[in-house]
Amino acid sequence: xxxxxxxxxxxDCTKNAIIDMVxxxxxxxxxxxxxxxxxxxxxxxxLFLAINAKLAxxxxxxxxxxxxxxxxxxxxxxxxxxxxxxxxGIAITMxxxxxxxxxxxxxxxxxxxxxxxxxxxxxxxYTMIITGSRGGFLGFVGILGCIWWFSKKKLxxxxxxxxxxxxxxxxxxxxxxxxxxxxxxxxxxESSQGRINSWMDGLALFAIRPIAGVGAGAFATARMxxxxxxxxxxxxxxxxxxxxxxxxxxxxxxxxxxxxxxNMRNVRDIRxxxxxxxxxxxxxxxxxxxxxxxxxxxxFAHSAYRYTxxxxxxxxxxxxxxxxxxxxxxxxxxIAGQPQDSSKVESNI
Length: 349
Description:
Elements: H1 2-5, H2 11-34, H3 38-67, E1 69-71, E2 74-76, H4 87-107, H5 111-129, H6 134-150, H7 154-171, H8 174-181, H9 190-208, H10 219-227, H11 236-272, H12 280-297, H13 307-335, H14 342-348
Antiparallel strand pairs: 1-2
């Protein structure tokens, strides 16, 4: 971002983007400094899910209370907060939450916890559906695919997922069905054509400034200067390529890679070393699936600077720290010939 400021097409836009990124950096540091134990992590995730479930319920109340946005025959949910101020923003947020609620639901043995996670999963899925977001729908299909991939009983899970899709589709209204069918339509609507045009212009902007891009947050200004159209990129990938150039491509590739690599390593280490951290496995799986969902919806939403990425990065770093400490404590006990009791290891974390 700092590199893109020098030749930015809108220095005020880039300055604001950098300030927002610094705020996200503080948010990231607060997570890794405060969420430093299994218990704190569980409380943090529960609070995060509960707060967003309340926001989702408010969105549903508004939708049924006359605050829906009518586009043609389709009613679409809107509202929320600054990160859920449009249809796609709401859908992206819901898709980020669904994997955590699902994997914790599968993990928990206590009936009340399992029921609460089932309830929150249903709330998040339904709220995503009433946004009418096509990108959100594709992200949700991606989540179902990941759930199948993580499942030990793939045949049974595949049948369940297929039944969910068939039954869910049958309950959709005609307007919703037509909107989701338009994803695969040969004749693109105005919205889809606008996205394609934006992507083409974004690639052209990259060709003009390939090293550091046109500046973080400056896509619309640069597009106006070069093509006479003041609109956003509508794609995470075009946003990074056009605004941050080769520097941004390299940094974001490493960022995405580490989110997947570190979480899958945590899941593997918990199982391989029999660490007393089983509750971190659903967390790490939830992070991976949420990130995949964000990458899918990122095809249609410029979400590179969205807080969700840095929330996932923060809990990734925090969970890695917890797992590494547990592993080090266990290895130290084994080397000394005195394997430690799980409760003593936990008390040290």
